Amino acid sequence: MGAVFESLHQAFSRGLPDRGLYDGWMADVFDQEAADLAEDARRLLVELDRDVPGVAMIGGECRPPPAVLEMADAVEVVVDVPGVAVESLRVAVRRSTVLVVGAKRPPPSVPGARFHLAQRAYGRFARVVRLLAAVDASRSKAVVAAGQLRITLPRIEDRRGKVILVPVERG
């Protein structure tokens, strides 16, 4: 990515950058972020497969719905995970993105039984939630209770747009 920044710097030093260069730079930044998240998800799924027996064999895809609540002192990400064991969940935070990876196992089959209705989903999943608030990920907590995963991320003061005076000392 260094070459992209160098090209952008050269363009800015000559005046306004060419729009194509800027668009390409932005695409590279977003592509890298998406690649980082995909790698994080892959790593967490591999860890889950290694640590939880039988998870790697689960077929299907599960998409538990998330919700994001913004409060004065924290941001809370709530994901519905009924039937998902705590040891089958992983949570990671990268920059302003929360990644939830897990697996929901199907119930044991009953010999001779047939489904009359089957709307429940089972399988491995990875959910990504973007945060707009500034949070302190190092103090975040994740708790599972009553079929919900609650990830609480304490807010920090967002300093963007504020003037911060830096004292200058004589050396």
Describe the structure in your own words.
The protein has helices spanning 2-13, 19-51, and strands at residues 66-70, 74-80, 89-94, 97-104, 123-130, 141-145, 148-154. By secondary structure, the protein is α+β, with helices and mostly antiparallel strands. The chain has a domain at 58-108 and 116-154: Immunoglobulin-like (Sandwich). The strands form 2 sheets. Strands 1-2-7-6 form a 4-stranded antiparallel β-sheet, with no helix packed on it.
Strand content: 25-35%
Count of alpha and pi helical runs: 2
Order of helices and strands: HHEEEEEEE
Output the CATH class name of the domain at 58-108 and 116-154. Mainly Beta
CATH topology of the domain at 58-108 and 116-154: Immunoglobulin-like
Shape: elongated
Reported for the largest beta sheet, the result is: 4 strands, antiparallel
Average of pLDDT: 81
CATH architecture of the domain at 58-108 and 116-154: Sandwich
The total count of strands amounts to 7
- The residue fraction in helices comes out at 25-40%
Provide the spatial order of strands within the biggest beta sheet: 1-2-7-6
Radius of gyration: 22 Å
Beginning-to-end CA distance, first to last residue: 35 Å
Model regions low in confidence, pLDDT < 50 over at least 5 residues: 1-18
Task: Give the key terms.
3-stranded antiparallel β-sheet; 4-stranded antiparallel β-sheet; alpha+beta; Immunoglobulin-like; 2 helices; 27% strand; 171 residues
What topology does this entry show?
Blueprint: H1 2-13, H2 19-51, E1 66-70, E2 74-80, E3 89-94, E4 97-104, E5 123-130, E6 141-145, E7 148-154
Antiparallel strand pairs: 1-2, 2-7, 3-4, 4-5, 6-7
Helix pairs in contact: 1-2
